[in-house]
Design goal:
- The complex is a heterodimer.
- Chain A is mainly alpha-helical.
- Helix content of chain A is 69%, strand content 0%.
- Chain A has one domain.
- Chain B has 2 domains: 104 residues, Beta Polymerase, domain 2 (2-Layer Sandwich); 281 residues, Cytochrome-c3 Hydrogenase, chain B (Orthogonal Bundle).
- Classes of the chains: A mainly alpha, B alpha+beta.
- At the A-B interface, helix 5 and helix 10 of A face strand 8, helix 7 and helix 9 of B.
Chain lengths: 317, 511
């Protein structure tokens, strides 16, 4: 491990923390433009966080330590996940830890805590949201794992770094299996990040909420951390998507000259992803909650198809 | 069913709408209600009054000839009146309100309180003349006895009156299994402002302003109904141009609300695109109203004796132009809503009220027409200028959210057609005349098909052109209880959509 790479790791960690709200703001802004609205600007999530950090927190009288600790755990999980994903360069000090199954585990850990915290207060909405979150979660996780397995079988490793290096730096090969996996991943990403058509991040209708229902009782700094964690989760998923499906442009181990290009490529890819997400959300309506299992089932099916395609078509060659 | 079929107790009330009034005793009240119910008529409103210790119950029914207002004196030690909620289920909450506000009690039915929460004790009745309007009471416990559903896995979700969004307050108690709703019970009354008490003693002119503020989204409907009532008690006939302008305002209000609702319905299925587009159109209309008539929602534009504001030919051209723009855009948006699989999946079969149930419970207005209840006062009991416009009411039989969306689209098209006719044929002349003197203790009624349904304003005149008692009736009285049925068997996350498809008034019933 060298100091420059340690420095780069720290820089990448700080970068993901700081740009996560920007991605959220950009997505919202794109949505506004697509709907003929002027929008609040890409910096709105920062303003929200700033506002929330300056408010006094209100806690329910029966809130336990778990309820208070959860926002911090949530932020830590999501920051770790977002920081682990190779966004700028491979071969960083944390790279050996970047296992895709571990990543799914980190997301699951966060889900367990937010669901427990939601039920901690004992309000109807908290448990309602937790129940729905678990419904979505237990269906999304297998689909996500199948997508990651497809990528793993191509590169022969569950290390995200190896996967990215395999896909990015080998001669260009189009894997049909990865097309199936990409569609499945986008479906999982919509569900896991509480986006339309599975959940509506902008709704004020408490009865329809999934993610928002779980965090209704949070205020001020706690809510700020939860929202920041949400932004980090969206960034983590977006960067995993980029790493798996469009990894080109990432800097190789020790290749410092490629960094500026890597930063530019990342910015471009994130902007494209945000606009694409906004387009998807503008075009679709939220589905009934009992359609979600079908939706996630389709994602799982596509991921399995991807895996089968790989074994049937790609390994023979 | 002609007027001759009824007992000869009715006398015609003067005014724009066909209305008759007669005094009845307890037996006659029930037999008349039964006769009207069997003849396919319905209950419109029920309220009570206090004339210095002499109480009376007033019931307004809609039958083929028009409105039949029945007055039942309630006196003696036992201030009771016959329960009619078995004939008209919609009467239930109105009767409970009479109990709370006047201390007159129905002989049967539900005896729980309705409008009274904890702001005044059960023994006090604010609408009695002896009640001191300045009296204050220590806030007590509400302690409302909700009906509990028991069984394996049943639990309750209490929602409101404070919601996550900025909406009107109401409490909804869901009994659910998983996501499926077994029962919904509403608790309203959080917006009780004492409007009926406030009306007492106001002059007819002062009352007009308050009437326009009973339910803000229906300000034109209430103002017109009030004006009709005030004109009825004073025997005033407003100039023709005023009547045509009133219809113009009413149709503009219908357009405003339907556009807003269609946007909200899109928003509730997270189709934010539709929300933004419809609200841009609504805003266009609001700005036009603001520029031409001086108020975006046309508040106080209708006054007793006429209208407060005239429009010139340039203004008429401006309205025509705005309507053309709205018509084109709504047509495009209707195609998008109709073709959007995701939105249609949410709309279709959601919150169904079948025509049989709608008829039984007295579902009225727009929601009623979406469930096969073909009532529209503009078509069936047209006053000037509707008698010259040949209104075509929009009806549907499916009774689901999709039907209520369709009826809104069709009513937008019809309102645009009506406004165009009004612009073409608007007579010239005065827009306002002086209000005559009110005959003391005369009853006057105004009846207007607002965008949500029929609005009734019943005005009992007092001395010196003042109001002795005024009862404004919102169609939401009839439709709130039906909403409790519409949700049964649906899933919890569909409730906001179903609720929005009815879009009922809280303020209008909390009074």
């Amino acid at each position: 491990m060298s100091y420059p790479s340690l420095l780069l790791q720290l820089a990448q960690n700080a970068l993901v923390l700081l740009i996560a709200p920007l991605l959220l703001g950009w997505t919202s802004q794109c949505r506004a433009w697509m709907q003929n609205r002027s929008g609040a600007g890409v910096l709105q999530p920062y303003r929200n966080l700033n506002k929330l950090f300056h408010k006094d927190a209100v806690l329910a009288v029966n809130a336990s330590a778990l309820f208070r600790a959860t926002p911090y755990i949530l932020l830590a999980c999501m920051w770790l996940a977002a920081a682990l994903v190779p966004v700028l360069a491979t071969g960083l000090p944390l790279s050996p830890a970047v296992d895709v199954i571990a990543l799914v585990g980190i997301f699951a850990l966060a889900r367990v805590f937010i669901s427990l915290a939601a039920m901690d207060i004992g309000t109807a909405f908290g448990s309602l949201g937790a129940r729905r979150e678990m419904l979505v979660g237990f269906l999304a996780e297998p689909a996500l794992l199948m997508v990651l397995f497809t990528a793993s079988t191509i590169s022969g490793s569950t290390s995200l770094i190896t996967i990215v290096e395999t896909l990015a730096h080998k001669p260009f090969v189009l894997y049909p299996s990865m097309v199936f996996a990409a569609v499945a991943f986008i479906m999982v990403m919509l569900a896991e990040n509480a986006r339309i058509p599975v959940d509506n991040p902008a709704t004020h209708l408490e009865l329809t909420m999934i993610h928002e229902a779980m965090v209704l009782e949070y205020s001020a700094r706690h809510l700020a951390l939860v929202e920041w964690a949400g932004a980090l989760k969206l960034l983590a998923y977006t960067t995993i998507c980029i790493a798996l499906f469009v990894p080109w442009g990432i800097a190789e181990t020790g290749n410092w000259g490629a960094l500026p290009l890597a930063v530019a490529a990342l910015a471009l890819k994130l902007a494209g992803a945000g606009a694409g997400l906004a387009l998807l959300e503008t075009l679709s309506a939220k589905m009934r909650i009992f359609r979600v299992p079908e939706f996630m089932g389709t994602a799982f099916l596509l991921a399995v198809l991807g895996l089968l395609t790989h074994f049937l078509l790609e390994t023979a060659a | 069913m002609k007027l001759d079929d009824f007992p000869k107790i009715f006398s015609r009330l003067p005014g724009a709408m066909p209305a008759w009034h007669g005094a009845v005793n307890a037996e006659e009240l029930r037999s008349l209600c039964e006769q009207v119910m069997r003849g396919g008529g319905k209950l419109l409103a029920l309220w009570g009054g206090d004339e210095n210790g002499e109480y009376a119950l007033h019931v307004v029914l809609v039958a083929a000839p028009g409105l039949l207002a029945l007055t039942l004196p309630v006196s003696g030690k036992h201030t009771t009146f016959p329960d009619i909620s078995d004939l008209f289920p919609a009467a239930d909450r109105m009767q409970r309100t009479v109990s709370d506000m006047l201390g007159l009690h129905p002989t049967g039915g539900d005896h729980r309180k309705w409008l009274r929460h904890a702001a005044w004790p059960g023994g006090e009745h604010p609408l009695r003349k002896s009640f001191d309007i300045a009296a204050t009471f220590a806030a007590g416990e509400d302690g409302y006895p909700f009906i509990a559903v028991t069984g394996n896995g049943v639990h309750e979700i209490p929602v409101g009156p404070v919601h996550a969004g900025t909406i009107e307050p109401g409490h909804f108690r869901f009994s659910i299994v998983g996501e499926r709703v077994l029962r919904l019970e509403e608790r309203l009354g959080y917006k009780h402002k004492g409007i009926e008490k406030r009306f007492e003693g106001m002059t007819l002119e002062q009352g007009a302003r308050l009437a326009g503020r009973i339910s803000g989204d229906t300000t034109v409907g209430y103002a017109w109904a009030y004006a009709q009532a005030a004109e009825s008690v004073t025997g005033t006939v407003p100039p023709p141009r005023a009547l045509w302008l009133r219809a113009l305002f009413l149709e503009l209000e219908r357009l405003l609300n339907h556009l807003g609702d269609l946007g909200y319905l899109g928003n509730d299925v997270a189709l934010a695109f539709g929300f933004a587009q419809f609200w841009i159109l609504k805003e266009d209309l609001l700005r036009m109203n603001g520029e031409l008539f001086g108020h975006r929602y046309l508040m106080d534009r209708i006054v007793p004796g006429g209208v407060a504001v005239d429009v010139d030919s340039a203004g008429l051209a401006r309205i025509g132009e705005t309507l053309r723009h709205i018509e084109q855009n709504v047509a495009a948006l209707k195609d998008i809503y109709d073709e959007h699989a995701g939105a249609q999946d949410r709309f279709l079969t959601t919150g169904r009220v079948l025509p049989e149930l709608a008829a039984q419970l007295g579902l009225t207005g727009l929601a009623g027409r979406a469930s096969g209840q073909a009532w529209d006062a503009r078509e069936q009991f047209p006053c000037t200028p509707y008698d010259q416009l040949d209104v075509q009411m929009a009806t549907h039989r499916n009774g689901d959210v999709a039907a209520r969306v369709t009826v809104r689209f069709e009513e937008i098209a019809e309102s645009i057609r009506l406004v165009r006719l009004i612009l073409e044929r608007l007579p010239s002349g005065e827009i306002r005349c002086a209000l005559g003197d009110a005959a003391e203790s005369r009853l006057g009624m105004g009846w207007v098909e607002g965008w949500r349904g029929e609005i009734l304003v019943a005005l009992h005149a007092g001395e010196n052109n003042r109001i002795r008692r005024l009862h404004p009736h919102d169609p939401s009285w009839q439709n709130w209880p039906v909403l409790e049925h519409a949700i049964i068997g649906n899933i919890v996350p569909d409730f906001p959509l179903i609720n929005k498809s009815f879009n009922l008034s809280y303020s209008g019933v909390d009074l």
